[in-house]
Amino acid sequence: MATSSSSRTRRILYIVGGLLVVGLAAGVTAWSTGFLGNGEEGRPVEVAEAEHRTITQVVTAFGRAQPETEVTISPDVSGEIVELTVREGDQVKKGQLLTRLRPDNYVAEVERARAEVSQARATLSERRADSLQARQQFERQEKLYDKGVVSDADFETAQSTYHQSVARLEAARYQVESAEARLQDSREQLEKTRIYAPMDGTVSKLNVEAGERVVGTSQMQGTEIMNIARLDQMELEVDVNENDVVNVALQDTAAIEIDAYPDRRFRGAVTEIANSARVSGEGTQDQVTNFPVKVRVLDAHNVDAGQVASNGSGVTRQEVPTGPDAPPNLRPGMSGTVDIFTQTMADVVSVPIQAVTVRDFNALDGGSDEPEGLDRKEDLRRVVFVAEADTARMVEVETSISDDTHVAVVAGLEGGENVIIGPYSAVSRELSEGDRVRIRDKSEDGSSMEIASND
């Protein structure tokens, strides 16, 4: 039994001794490579050169194609469709007859109104004759009254009769005017049974067939018979996030990719920016605020972001043509992606986006006299770390616009510096002024990158 216990003790000692040897070897390796902070070479980092380049800021949004001009055709009067002269997809000209409603009831109304006009005119003639007779009678009574032949009562009766006849004559005139107005209205209602195209375009939607009854807009919303659109003037309405819409301006150029044409890019220009937002998921954690932006499709030529013209320091603009200049076969409802080029800066110092981070300068200065906690003020500034020999130097920078990969630096760098871009944990949190670093050889495993801090 004693022999067995002694054997177990020796095995434990061997295991502990082996672990100590392995730990010592790992410690020596970490010390020599700088993992523990006092290495001779420092920890490896990735760098990229700050270089002059052209930066184009892009706002990307999604939407659907629609005609710039599209009108809904609804009847002003109700009735049955007896004639439909167009089908969906037909091209029409302004003033062309589109459809006709059954006119029987409206024809009868016109005849009734015409008869009322004739009756009112006859009544007017009668009242005119009565008024003439009453005036003559009054004038005779007036002369006799002046001579003292007739009594006051007879004179006043003649005078009252004349005034009443004048009033009836005036009322008859108004009745004629009213009847004529009803006749004119009836004729207009009859004319509205024939519906004409208000503009040149294409029938983009047809909602009815001959024989159906439709409701006029004079009574309620009315029946939408069809839509006519200018398909040669197309646009995309996209939703731009509230954080990006402040960078978008009228006349900004754009590149449009339509899902139905994956190998083509269309040129576009911003023509309208909404002032009212669209809010989805209001009151929830998923609430999103977007602003509708309309982008006119200019032509079917391919375009690349690098081909956008720039004056070197300002916002790129392009004049929007007024005539139809959209590519054919771009149909309403097609979905697409729009890249709006909001601003371009040429020959500006730029660094990869991952090179820029923030540091609290209050913390770097040893902190303020205020206690740690929520009340301590932070002084966050943008910085990059420049690898100089075997040391990391922190440089405060002022940034401007950015594209997908690089950000423009307008102050702090001259160009040509080796800025540290990785590893991410080091750049974002761990790296400090004066840390020993070593530019990592491309053959090294990137997972071994760390920072050696001077003690």
UniProtKB/TrEMBL annotation:
GO terms for cellular component: efflux pump complex. It is found in: Cell envelope. Its main location: other. The chain crosses the membrane at residues 12-31. Residues 169-196 form a coiled coil. Residues 117-184 form the Multidrug resistance protein MdtA-like alpha-helical hairpin domain. Residues 307-332 are annotated as: Disordered. Residues 378-422 form the Multidrug resistance protein MdtA-like C-terminal permuted SH3 domain. Residues 70-216 form the Multidrug resistance protein MdtA-like barrel-sandwich hybrid domain. Residues 236-300 form the YknX-like beta-barrel domain. The keyword Transport applies. Keywords: Coiled coil, Membrane, Transmembrane, Transmembrane helix, Transport. InterPro entries: Beta-barrel_YknX, MdtA-like_BSH, MdtA-like_C, MdtA-like_HH, RND_pump_MFP. Gene3D superfamilies: 2.40.30.170, 2.40.420.20, 2.40.50.100, Helix hairpin bin. GO terms for molecular function: efflux transmembrane transporter activity. Belongs to the membrane fusion protein (MFP) (TC 8.A.1) family. PANTHER family: MULTIDRUG RESISTANCE PROTEIN MDTA, SLR1207 PROTEIN. This is Efflux transporter periplasmic adaptor subunit.
